[in-house]
Amino acid sequence: AFQMTRRVDPVVTWWVLLAFVGVLAVGIGLDLAFGRPVYATIVALPFAFLAALFLLARRAEAAAYRQIEGQPGASLSALRTIRRGWEFPEEPVAVDPRGQEIVFRGLGRPGIVLVAEGNPVRAQRLLEAERKKVARVLPNVPVTLLQSGNEDGQVPLRKLPGTVRKLKPKLTKQEVGEVGKRLRALGGARLPVPKGID
């Protein structure tokens, strides 16, 4: 993780060292004030390691998002970091063959989430078409539309999992199971493959 982060973020070494030395200095300073410098070093050392590892983890996560940003399927990779409560199939549900617009569908207790990436105007058209298709099959299920990107009205890639996690639950677990069965029957994207190819 450190090597991968250093390739994308060369100053990570100095930030990690600064966090380690800073926490260690604060711990030693506090205990010098109370007259126990040896005890301070023993207690502050694990906290300094913890602070350095925490900072490295945050910088590594940001570096990983920077590496995949702009690639097709990056939003799905970000959404797959959500540990539980959400199901995001590998296959996109809508693809614009003329551009690089892709729509992925997720299902959780807050309902259905449609996430698009690519050109904002064409991605919005794809999202609306997919929302109408889902609404015909599941009229009473809430559908949330999101666009991944860095322009106005879009959610940055690194904030996408947090945005989805913050959605309020509206379905029971049993309802999620039933909705999942209907969505699987609805299928995914029909890719523009010429007829006659197996």
Protein architecture, described:
Helix 1 packs across helix 3 and helix 2 packs antiparallel against helix 3. Strand 4, helix 5 and strand 5 form a beta-alpha-beta unit. This protein has seven helices and five strands. With 198 residues, it is an alpha+beta fold. Strands 1, 2, 3, 4 and 5 form a five-stranded mixed β-sheet that branches. The model has no long low-confidence stretch (mean pLDDT 81). The chain is 54% helix and 12% strand.
Helix-strand layout with pairing:
Blueprint: H1 2-8, H2 12-34, H3 37-68, H4 74-79, E1 86-87, E2 94-95, E3 102-108, E4 111-117, H5 120-137, E5 143-148, H6 160-165, H7 173-186
Parallel strand pairs: 4-5
Antiparallel strand pairs: 1-3, 2-3, 3-4
Key phrases:
five-stranded mixed beta sheet; alpha+beta; 12% strand; 198 residues; 7 helices
Low-confidence stretches: none
Structural class: alpha+beta
Cα end-to-end separation: 41 Å
Helix fraction, binned, reads 40-55%
Average residue-wise pLDDT:
81
The tally of helices reads 7
- The coarse overall form would be elongated
What's the total number of strands? Answer: 5
The biggest sheet amounts to: 5 strands, mixed
Radius of gyration from the CA trace?
Answer: 23 Å
Strand content: 5-15%
The run of helices and strands is HHHHEEEEHEHH
